[in-house]
Amino acid sequence: MLELDRPAEALRVFVFATPHPHAALIAIDDALARSTGELAALRLKPVGRIVEATLTLRGLSAAAAQAVADRLAGQIGVQSLRLEHLRGRS
């Protein structure tokens, strides 16, 4: 199958801030333990006094992604969560 013939794959990108990397990793660990999604990418980036976490999952419906976002937002230390729905090539 040609690359262009492959169906687009849904990726869910969760971007959030925490006061330190440990808080981000705890939130990510909890989210992954309760999700059926597959980890596609993870990035932790220090930005001033906070850490910006970018978690990308594949294999989640929009409703399941919203549930993960709600779970992440409820974690201690998580601030300013944003969820993006992307279509990519597998």
How are the SSEs placed, and which strands pair?
Elements: E1 8-18, H1 21-33, E2 38-47, E3 50-58, H2 62-73, E4 79-89
Antiparallel strand pairs: 1-3, 1-4, 2-3
Molecular structure report:
It is a single chain. By secondary structure, the protein is of the alpha+beta class. Helices cover 28% and strands 46% of the residues. The chain has two helices and four strands. Strands 2-3-1-4 form a four-stranded antiparallel beta sheet, with helices on one face. Strand 2 (38-47) and strand 3 (50-58) form a beta hairpin. Helix 1 runs antiparallel to helix 2 (62-73). The two termini are 12 Å apart.
The class by helix and strand makeup works out as: alpha+beta
In CATH terms, the superfamily is: ACT domain
Largest sheet: 4 strands, antiparallel
According to CATH, what is the topology? Alpha-Beta Plaits
Task: Using the 3D structure, state the CATH architecture.
Answer: 2-Layer Sandwich
The unreliable regions are none
Q: Classify the helix fraction into a percent range.
A: 25-40%
Distance between the amino and carboxyl termini: 12 Å
User: What is the overall shape?
Assistant: globular
Tally of DSSP β-strands: 4
Rg over CA atoms, rounded to whole Å, is 14 Å
For the largest beta sheet, what order do the strands appear in spatially?
2-3-1-4
Q: Count up the domains.
A: 1
CATH class: Alpha Beta
Strand content: over 45%
Tally of separate helices: 2
Order of helices and strands: EHEEHE
Mean pLDDT: 88
